[in-house]
From TrEMBL:
Source organism superkingdom: Bacteria
Cited Gene3D superfamilies: lambda repressor-like DNA-binding domains
Name under which the protein is recorded: Uncharacterized protein
MF annotations from Gene Ontology: DNA binding
Length: 354
């Protein structure tokens, strides 16, 4: 059974995409039907102004792919492309999320209940629910070494207060693209969260040394993995796993080059559970022994080359479970993070679920 007004909203959106999706280049129903390999009356039924038919989800996927890139209409006949760039893929995911919400409402269902958070990616969360990214805060002794570090400086840059900027930049854009109707905020891990922020979907970047919120949450959740604290910035620490039989320690690998050490492999922790401050929301940790590990935990589900297989692995292992964690190796090549593959025994170190 469909809901009349939401169904009309979806029909208007599909018609708008066709007629105004590419400025100066409206697309006819015949052209779109040819690209989708369907009949013209079917396209017309989805756009009907009084009694539209709600298209199946796979057809919305075709819409999202087609209108994610102008390359779809570079030459005739127009076509749905088989592969997209990272930027085009992000646009596709944002549009698809919007269309799925409209479709779900047209069917008279609740988006929060019927669009699972991991429908296509673990970073897709229910629409219209706040998301708070809590990023490690760079210690004062390190911030003072940066130009424009103080608020009184004319060249002050607020982002200088954060550590793990690579991870924050990568994840913030991805979360915004995956959740276009959600409010996404960024807060420092050394600050105080408001009650509303604490009870939102929490995303924690960085470990217990510089992210106090991560340290606080780890005290409140049942996770058999403990991150070792570093006495100072030059020390090496890792993760301890208690599997009820023995305690295993996983450390990053460094190689001595002259008087310095080069990171060859970090350790990354990805953790997802219900938010202990609000059971209707989630908490997600992306953590590492070093900042390269944090970025590896993030890119496991943002890198277009690996996120589908890593998502499929997590869903096959932990579908329906409230809490799970994945500990993985993160190879580092000349400072560049190699995205961990959770399906590879060479990368996967440990898995746990409640």
């Amino acid at each position: 059974m469909t809901s009349a007004e939401p169904a009309l909203q979806l029909a208007r959106r599909l018609r708008s995409l066709r007629t105004r999706g590419w400025p100066g280049k409206p697309i006819t129903q015949e052209q779109l039907a040819e690209a989708f390999k369907v009949s013209v009356p079917l396209i017309s039924s989805w756009e009907h102004k009084r009694n539209p038919v709600v298209p199946p989800e796979q057809r919305l996927e075709a819409y999202a792919t087609f209108f994610a890139t102008s390359r779809s209409v570079e030459r005739q006949p127009y076509r749905v492309l088989a592969s997209l760039s990272d930027e085009e893929q992000a646009a596709r995911e944002a549009l698809l999320a919007e269309l799925i919400v409209l479709r779900t409402r047209a069917l008279g269902e609740s988006p929060a209940e019927n669009v699972p958070p991991d429908a296509d990616n673990l970073w897709r969360l229910p629409p219209h629910e706040d998301i708070t990214i809590v990023c490690s805060k760079l210690p004062e002794r390190l911030r003072t070494q940066l130009p424009g570090a103080g608020p009184e400086d004319p060249d002050y840059v607020e982002l200088y207060q954060y550590s793990d900027l690579d991870s924050l930049f990568e994840l913030h854009g991805h979360i915004r693209a995956m959740n276009p109707t959600n409010t996404v905020r960024v807060r420092p891990g050394a600050g105080i969260l408001t009650a509303d922020e604490s009870s939102s979907h929490l995303v924690l970047l960085g470990g217990v040394d510089w992210n106090q919120i991560t340290a606080e949450l780890l005290h409140r959740i049942d996770l058999p993995i403990r991150q070792q604290q570093r006495p100072d910035d030059t020390d090496v620490s890792g993760f301890e796993v208690d599997d009820d039989v023995e305690v295993k320690t996983f450390l990053p690998k460094l190689r001595k080059v002259g008087n310095s050490q080069v990171l060859e492999e970090d350790v990354a922790l990805f953790y997802r559970s219900r938010n202990p401050f609000n059971q209707k929301r989630t908490v997600t940790m992306c953590n590492g022994a070093f900042s390269r590990g944090v970025l590896g935990a993030v890119r496991a589900l943002t890198d277009a080359r690996f996120r589908d297989r890593n998502t499929a692995h997590a869903r096959s292992r932990f579908a329906g479970l409230d809490s799970f964690s994945i500990l993985s190796r993160v190879p580092v090549l000349q400072g560049t993070v190699i995205t961990p593959d959770w399906t590879s025994d060479d990368h996967l170190l440990h898995e746990w679920s409640a």
